[in-house]
Amino acid sequence: MSQIVKAYDVRGVYPDQLDDRLAELFGAAFVEVTGAGAIVIGHDMRPSSPGLASSFARGAVSRGADATIIGLCSTDQLYFASGDMDMPGAMFTASHNPAQYNGIKMCRAGAAPVGQDTGLAEIRALAEGWLTDGAPASVTKPGHLGQRDTLTDYAAYLLSLVDVSAIRPLKVVVDAGNGMGGHTVPTVFADLPLDVVPMYFELDGTFPNHEANPLDPKNIVDLQARVLAEGADLGLAFDGDADRCFVVDERGQGVSPSAITALVAARELAKYPGGTIIHNLITSWSVPQVVREHGGTPVRTRVGHSFIKQEMARTGAVFGGEHSAHYYFRDFWNADTGMLAALHVLAALGGQRGPLSELVASYDRYAGSGEINSTVDDQAARTAAVRASFASRDDVTFDELDGLTVTGADWWFNLRPSNTEPLLRLNVEARDAATMERVRDEALALIRT
């Protein structure tokens, strides 16, 4: 259990760590902890997902809850179902992880997150206690099991949130990575003036073409080449469960998720003047600047969807973005949806005549390193060494909201430990590339000593 129950979800190798019996226990425990009378369950295209989802449903039904299985769906489609049907939900997916993995993302009614501090620890404890003898017999009669298709309603709801009436004809290459984008994109984009060039739309949980993780640059190489070959206006890449979306411009260059965060923030602030925008501490300086320029209030938070969603709820924020390409919308129950962010990009680009590279230039103002991982023997000692080295300078400040952030006059960097691996993650940004490279190299030398 300690290996597969993470901070925000359950994830492990199937069937060695997560199997159908355990999924059934998680289903029973989920109902017990949430007190749900009805739940909704979806799954991705991994070979093990349908069986795991059915087992989870069996466990839920055994505790007296009605279970509605919506079948193949993206994670944000499951969030839609949870919000629209006002039911707790469970999504079977391992997102961008390799084929041998699977997992469960759980939420309460209205897509409210379930994490270690919001029910996941209790779910784990119950399931663990039932491992030997199984869950005790339910004191109520078993629930009912049903099915429902939510794809059309999901698409219609997303399209109701973005004005797409002025989009000019665009050619867009979409790399679904053999993941759930191949299921959702054809329906969501069906009536838009788009010439869609599909890549890897075949649902295949063995990921025969590349890992479904667009955050790794090697996994968008095919998309970049195809955008250039097709003379397309842009490219979109979705991860395995299609809750994240990455953007490539007409030159085949990746667009920073921070720039997309700033662009969407500006559009949401036009819709909700004076609104609050959440951004995590490794997004670009551009994000809070753009938010203020458009009359909004930026709020900085830790990395991780549970922190973003908590702040969204606390502040009533209209939008939140992370540099990992997770985008959260108040209009979507504070949940993350890469598809809605993609529609905003299409509407923004299609509503004017210029290319995407020009459109995003005003939102991408600084030089960034991207995330650089370093394997270390002692995360705390290496972080302390970095802090000590920079502490002698008069022109820097420190904060420890999440890891160590060091800020100079024209640069900043954040150094965070991984919770699951012996890694330190470094992100650097500066006003120009030369300064960024200098600060990056100095920090890496200290980290890797």
Automatic annotation (TrEMBL):
| Protein's GO biological process | carbohydrate metabolic process
| Assigned keywords, A-Z | Isomerase, Magnesium, Metal-binding, Phosphoprotein
Per its UniProt record, what SUPFAM superfamilies does this chain match? Phosphoglucomutase, C-terminal domain, Phosphoglucomutase, first 3 domains
Q: Alpha-D-phosphohexomutase alpha/beta/alpha domain: which residues?
A: 3-126, 153-252, 260-366
Q: Which cofactor does it need?
A: Mg(2+)
Do you know which InterPro entries this protein is assigned to? A-D-PHexomutase_a/b/a-I, A-D-PHexomutase_a/b/a-I/II/III, A-D-PHexomutase_a/b/a-II, A-D-PHexomutase_a/b/a-III, A-D-PHexomutase_C, A-D-PHexomutase_C_sf, Alpha-D-phosphohexomutase_SF
Q: Does the keyword Magnesium apply?
A: yes
GO MF terms on file? intramolecular phosphotransferase activity; metal ion binding
Concerning Pfam families, the annotation shows: PGM_PMM_I (PF02878), PGM_PMM_II (PF02879), PGM_PMM_III (PF02880), PGM_PMM_IV (PF00408)
- CDD domains in alphabetical order: PMM_PGM (cd03089)
Taking every annotated instance into account, which residue ranges of this chain make up the domain Alpha-D-phosphohexomutase C-terminal?
Answer: 371-444
**UniProt family annotation:** Belongs to the phosphohexose mutase family.
UniProt cross-references to NCBIfam families, sorted A to Z: PRK09542.1
Indicate what this protein is called per its UniProt record.
Phosphomannomutase
Give the organism, scientific name.
Streptomyces scopuliridis RB72
Gene name in the database record:
manB
